[in-house]
Amino acid sequence: MTDPRDHLLSWLKDAHAAEEQAVTMLSKLAGRIENYPELKARIEQHVDETRRQSTRVEECLVKLGSDSSALKDAGTKLMGLGQGLSGIFTSDEVAKGVLASYAFEHMEIASYRMLIAAAKQVGEPEVQRVCEEILQEEVAMAKWLEDNLDSITQKFFAREATEATAKH
Ligand code: MG
Ligand code: FE
């Protein structure tokens, strides 16, 4: 049987890789958004949060005895955002970006919920607390996207209609 602490460590490494990937992808997405200032601002806010999350997860790993230099080349094996956001620079890139971000936040929510349970299981209250705090930020981001999916889609269609009219 694998030591439960090794699972906690391995899941934290995955979470760290996901945060690093999120910083890259969300920065790129925010940089591409011109006509949705609230969406752009919210994503930029989450990029800042994500940077701090990455650092905090790294601190947890160090605390658990992981070699932090090994994290630098941990790679990005996590599903989702990379695939979801690559090649989205099409006419509906905003819609595709919101879709991929919404899915990614929920992957993070599941990941941190499991990390909280794992940290509880092996008796690492500090790791548990960090993951609980990060979870709140992921939930808030997912909620914001959920609350704004309709209006962003409506605005997208309105802009499409205007551009079509302007061309003809
Ligand atoms: Mg995150
Ligand atoms: Fe997130």
Keywords:
binds fe (iii) ion; 80% helix; 168 residues; 5 helices; Ferritin
User: What is the tally of helical segments?
Assistant: 5
Number of strands: 0
Q: Describe the main β-sheet briefly.
A: none
Mean pLDDT, all residues: 89
Total tally of structural domains:
1
Could you say which overall geometry the principal axes of the C-alpha atoms support?
elongated
What is the chain-wise order of helices and strands?
Answer: HHHHH
Could you give me the name of the CATH homologous superfamily? Answer: Ferritin, core subunit, four-helix bundle
Instruction: Give the helix proportion (percent range).
Output: over 70%
By CATH, the architecture is named Up-down Bundle
Secondary structural class: mainly alpha
How much is the radius of gyration in Å? 18 Å
Intertermini distance: 68 Å
If you had to describe this structure to a student in words, what would you say it looks like?
- This protein is mainly α and 168 residues long.
- It has one domain: Ferritin (Up-down Bundle).
- Helix content is 80%, strand content 0%.
- It has five helices and no strands.
- Helix 1 packs antiparallel against helix 2, helix 2 runs antiparallel to helix 5 and helix 4 packs antiparallel against helix 5.
- It is elongated and about 65 Å long.
- The model has no long low-confidence stretch (mean pLDDT 89).
- Fe (iii) ion (FE) binds next to helix 2, helix 4 and helix 5.
